[in-house]
Amino acid sequence: MRDVKYLASACKNTNAWRAVLLTTLPLVILWALIQHTFPLSRPPVEVGCANRPIRITDIYVIHSYWSKDRKELAPGICRWLAEHGGPLADVPCTLAPGFWASAAPRSAILDLIRQRVVAPESHARPLGWYTKLLYRFHVSGAAALFDEQEQPLSLSYLGIAAVNVMAQSNWTAAMTRQGVPPRDRVNRHLLLIEDDAELNEERVAMLQRTVAQLDPCYDMVGLDYKENFCSLQWLKDGLASWFLPAAWRTSPHLVRARLAFSRTTGLLFSYKGALRIQSAMPVTRELDLWYRDLITDGLLRVYVTCPRVVGIMGLPTVT
Ligand SMILES: *[C@@H]1O[C@H](CO)[C@@H](O)[C@H](O)[C@H]1NC(C)=O
């Protein structure tokens, strides 16, 4: 007897559920349709990923125009690329004037702060909890660009940071000025190199292979990564060379940077990446570690090449 009652109530329950489902489902579908046709709020414009094969469309070379020893380097790189750059020969090569920090009056530095290019630490974007934790336990550290009195701590850090991010915003501003349709900008890619970068035909070929296998949603690629960050990759390559025929192995490898990042001699940016970086400005720390913090906070999707694609002459920085 109890079983029958139980069964009856179970049936009633299923019927009730069915009724609820049958009435709500059409309502949900109707609501979704109305939302789709007359959305109450539109999502903010999102810059997407590349939707065509990636190729470098612009090259900026940082130009130390004031230095007797270095002023020939950047024009030399553009000239070399035009003559021997193969696939890069036709890519416009722009000299990006460096920031002559040692000759800059205080007002020029104040201008940079006003434009939110660089700034004292007090102006920094709030860090994510994980990055904060790394700083708290001294796993991470980075030199600030300004001291507590808001005076530059190191002119070379200041100059490198300022020019690197200014070059990127000049690049995106140029697209606005030229009226490049926003949907085409996702297929623009900037190679930004410092004037002591070393390129040759083999490196250009490596760069082409890198770009060909690049994630279309990348934000930035470090092309001159420190070799010791690649040691895990060497180990994998060592193993692969036992098992895989040479033709199956790719080089260079793109390795996702998750917690560490260093060096800025050769960087590749997508339009999305450049905009993301601009929205995180001002730079308040040495540049490569400021990028590292963006990576740790999940704001930038960054890869590095193993081995490095852009060589470094290792000249002392000029300010
Ligand atoms: C960026 O553009 C401004 C304005 O044209 C120019 O003065 C500056 O030198 C450029 N800087 C870089 C790094 O390209």
Uncertain regions: pLDDT < 50 for 5+ in a row? none
Instruction: State the strand order across the main sheet.
Output: 2-1-3-7-5-8-6
Radius of gyration over alpha carbons? 26 Å
What's the total helix number? Answer: 10
Encode the helix/strand succession as letters: HEHEHHHHEEHEHEEHHEE
Secondary structure tally: strands: 9
Report helical residue fraction: 40-55%
Chain oligomer state: single chain
Number of domains: 2
CATH architecture of the largest domain: Alpha-Beta Complex
Transmembrane segments: 16-34
Keywords: Membrane, Transmembrane, Transmembrane helix
Give your account of this protein's structure.
By secondary structure, the chain is α/β, with parallel strands linked by helices. It has two domains: 1-42; 58-312, Spore Coat Polysaccharide Biosynthesis Protein SpsA, Chain A, CATH 3.90.550. 43% of the residues lie in helices and 12% in strands. It is built from ten helices and nine strands. Strands 2-1-3-7-5-8-6 form a seven-stranded mixed sheet, sandwiched between helices. It has a two-stranded antiparallel sheet with strand order 4-9. The longest helix has 36 residues, at 2-37. It is globular. The mean pLDDT is 88. The structure holds 2-acetamido-2-deoxy-beta-D-glucopyranose. 2-acetamido-2-deoxy-beta-D-glucopyranose is lined by residues 96-97, 163, 166-167, 170.
